[in-house]
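Q: What structure does this chain adopt?
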Amino acid sequence: MDIDSATGSTAGSPAGGTANGPAGGTADGTANSSPVRLEPWSDGDAGLLRAVNAPELMAHLGGPESEEQLVARQRRYVELTADAARPGGMFRIVLLPEEVAAGSIGFWETSFEGEPVYETGWTVLPGFQGRGVATAATRAVVERARAEDRFGALLAFPSTDNGPSNAVCRKAGFRLLGERDFEYPPGRPMRCNAWRLDLADTASPDLATRPGA
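A:
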């Protein structure tokens, strides 16, 4: 797992990539009947990046990053979003109809057990948790990865003790492969659940959104 970060408190802040391709339902990037819209990460999202760096949101990822690390991460997000040659993308999650930023999500290229795949991670701000935001955003990322069509699977690696993020994986249609050991940050052991969604399988998961998503 190439964790420039993993799935954290309702998730993590991933390595990023491009922000090209449809989100899944409409030309403007809004998934049909979805309570969220995904918008490409930009220079203006540095404040959102700092907001999702809060201690309670980074508890499963080794704690908040330093200001220097955040500046470097923001630069990576912006650069990779502008690079159409790179798979995946990094996005802010916009809650509808309020039109407010509720968190971040992305998907990017990694390798899992020798297979090139996409990986995803997300973070939802505390004031928006429990409203189905993470599940809706993850479903939108699934459709983006499916439309981009570079790899056959999308994986997520929430910590085994991160109940909300594991629930999002289940509700978004991922299949649990089992537990894996990783290090994130480097030098910090992390026990994760490996979840896989095969992008060729277009069967829709249960669309009913339950509390805590």
